[in-house]
Amino acid sequence: MIERKVDLSGKTTYQFGGYAEYYLDFSEENEEILQECSSLTDNIYILGNGSNIAFSDKGYPGLVIKSSKTGIRDLTDNSIEVFSGTPMPEISRYCLDKSFSGAEFMIGIPGTIGGGLAMNAGSYGNSVFESGIVSKIYSYNFKSNSTSITDPEDLNYGYRLVEGLGEEFIYKVELAFNLVDPKLIKEKHTEYLLHRKETQPSGKYNAGSVFKNPPGNYAGQLIENAGLKGYSVGTVSISEKHANFFIAEKNAKSTDLYNLVQHVKNIIEENFSVSLEEEIRFVGDF
């Protein structure tokens, strides 16, 4: 059911933002309600787990659709079907149980596979599309009011980038894997989770890496070298543990995050002549 005036502050890991004019929690395959969405407004934003999103304190003057249908189904002895709201760590653990190799890098990513496909999410030197595990993407286009199946070979993708999906609403994906000794998968899980624990701040009110790593460099290292660890603007501060993670206080304002991001970009440009690009997405009027 499409709802009106829904508070967005509980829909992202940062837990701030205003109200959406319209909101849909898409938890079942229902093409009729998607057609209703397209007739309602042209201003549609697709939300996954909200782990790299900052909604404006002023809200969103359109429709936010949260892809929350989860589930994994075996297709063959080495492939699965996954609904877009399924968390990536859940997929990685499922693959461990099946001896499927290729999704190990997902174990520590706090997002859904739908969001991961939309931005080519990755970690530990791998990403959703570079991994080679994506075989088919099922999506719905609100402009044409039609469903489609996309082959990843028809897409252009790179570091935190996907071109070719346009404004598609991804609702399902097929993944295929190689079979390996599960001990090898388990070793990678242990290694990746330990590295995450040692290098990244814990806690709820952050959205992972704020900036993409510029070519040949690391955003966190540049921010640290600029002496900005611990620096804050209002209710949001730069982590003392990892400078590419920005931590918000409870009931923080997204405007503070936005202003801190702009400040950091200016300092890095002035000191190192490097233009940082956001990995986090600011949605709405800032």
Description of the structure:
A five-stranded antiparallel β-sheet has the order 6-7-15-11-12, covered by helices on one side. A four-stranded mixed β-sheet has the order 1-2-5-3, with helices on one face. The protein folds into three domains: 2-67, Uridine Diphospho-n-acetylenolpyruvylglucosamine Reductase, domain 2; 72-198, Uridine Diphospho-n-acetylenolpyruvylglucosamine Reductase, domain 3 (2-Layer Sandwich), CATH 3.30.465; 219-283, Uridine Diphospho-n-acetylenolpyruvylglucosamine Reductase, domain 1, CATH 3.90.78.10. 40% of the residues are buried. Strand 6 and strand 7 (79-83) form a beta hairpin. Helix content is 25%, strand content 30%. The chain is globular, with a radius of gyration of 19 Å. It is α+β, with helices and mostly antiparallel strands. It contains six helices and 20 strands. The protein has helices at residues 31-40, 88-98, 113-119, 182-199, 219-225, 254-272, and strands at residues 2-7, 19-26, 44-47, 53-55, 60-67, 72-76, 79-83, 100-101, 122-123, 126-127, 134-141, 146-150, 156-158, 161-163, 169-176, 178-179, 232-233, 236-238, 246-248, 281-283. It starts with a strand and ends with a strand.
